[in-house]
Design brief:
By secondary structure, the protein is of the alpha/beta class. The chain has one domain: Alpha-Beta Barrel (TIM Barrel), CATH 3.20.20.140. Helices cover 46% and strands 14% of the residues. The strands form three sheets. It has a four-stranded parallel sheet with strand order 1-2-3-4.
Length: 368
């Protein structure tokens, strides 16, 4: 592949066999995955001031700020990426490059999660913003196909949980459900903003048979996961690391609470993001991240990057960290990938075809 079009993910050895494994990325924020060089160019076009206009120092600034433990610095990183994503051209470019970076990571199915209401500062309305992102996703898929690589993408349209606009965003998602929008989410500051604050939107989407995932159980406790699953009809949970608060398990034995048992028995998928969770304090380390214990108990865990730029990561890097620091093997990686594809927001026939034609053969070709 052309290394300029499909750059090897940061922190990944180009010869790492994990890079060759077929992957699925479900929890992958569009505004958290820009290329630093793109940010610099887009910022110059709209006269937005950045901490630095040199590519590698800017990349380092994002990583250091996101991992600083200072919430103000962490949030500032998104202010810079969102500020340069306010025009049709910028949104299309960012989405196109996001797809190409997925392909370089070995991802063949990816969902781009983003909040259109944050991209209206320069005259776009939410429909125009969604259309601009879809154009970029389509262009990225076409460029991948020209290079002999396959990828399928979809948009998860997200409402900000601290705002009062979720029903309008849910209506937006439905208007675009037949043109690339595959799901709905709420994001932003979790603590103090429970999912049921947006129940009107979730009830509406439930009646319309539209897929929903909800950020829950990262910065707030297990009650938010309960509300997301049992009140707001979430088919998947974003992060969900604090489900361990509803269990008393040591070395694989113990008891599960009612909610944890429900999520295990019903295989409610958990979109887990190890590096990001360590950055935000939701987990102490990769080795101690709940994903491994939950995987061993049979929970439907999936491996995701969350914010590729801020966390300096990719699906490949997350998998490599789990292998090196948490004792995962290729079978574990395949289990998590099958989980991810199985709960992807795309039709059953496509999921089954991708498992048979892409996922299983891809894992059989590669040996760690």
């Amino acid at each position: 592949m052309d290394p300029e079009l499909f750059p090897t993910p940061r922190g990944v050895d180009a010869d790492d066999p994990i890079l060759q494994l077929p992957k699925v990325s479900l929890h992958d924020h569009l505004d958290g995955g820009l290329r630093p060089g793109t940010i610099i160019e887009l910022a110059a076009a709209v006269d937005h001031q950045l901490p630095t206009i040199e590519e590698e120092p800017l990349r380092a600034w994002f990583s250091e700020s996101a991992g600083s433990g200072d919430l103000v610095r962490y949030l500032e990183t998104f202010e810079h990426t969102i500020a340069v994503m306010q025009t049709t051209e910028a949104l299309t470019r960012v989405a196109r490059e996001w797809v190409l970076d997925q392909v370089a990571d070995g991802v063949f199915y990816a969902e781009a999660r983003w909040a259109p209401e944050q991209h209206l500062r320069r005259g776009l309305d939410m429909d125009a913003a969604v259309e601009a992102v879809q154009a970029g996703l389509d262009e990225g898929e076409a460029l991948a196909a020209d290079a002999g690589r396959f990828i399928r993408t979809g948009q998860i349209v997200t409402a900000m949980r601290h705002a009062q606009n979720s029903l309008a965003v849910a209506e937006l998602a439905l208007r675009h459900r037949d043109s690339g929008t595959v799901g709905f989410d709420i994001a932003g500051g979790e603590a103090g903003n429970p999912p049921a604050d947006h129940l009107a939107a979730f009830d509406y989407l439930h009646r319309e048979s539209f897929p929903v995932t909800i950020h829950a159980g990262e910065a707030a406790g297990v009650d938010y996961i309960l509300e997301a699953v049992q009140v707001c009809h979430a088919q998947r949970i974003g992060h969900g690391v604090r489900i361990v608060e509803d269990m008393d398990v040591v070395d694989g034995t113990g008891t599960l609470g009612r909610l944890a048992a429900w999520m295990l028995d019903h295989q409610v998928p958990l979109e887990m993001c190890p590096t990001s969770n360590v950055q935000t304090g939701a987990a102490a380390s990769i080795a101690d991240h709940p994903i491994t214990g939950l995987k061993d108990l049979g929970f439907a865990v999936t491996v995701n990057p969350d914010n590729r730029l801020m966390s300096g990561t990719s699906v490949t890097r997350e998998m490599r960290l789990l292998v090196d620091q948490a004792g995962w093997d290729q079978g574990d990686l395949e289990w998590a990938t099958v989980n991810a594809l199985g709960c992807g927001f795309l039709p059953l026939d496509a999921r089954e075809r991708f498992i048979d034609e892409i996922l299983i053969p891809g894992f059989e070709r590669v040996g760690l």
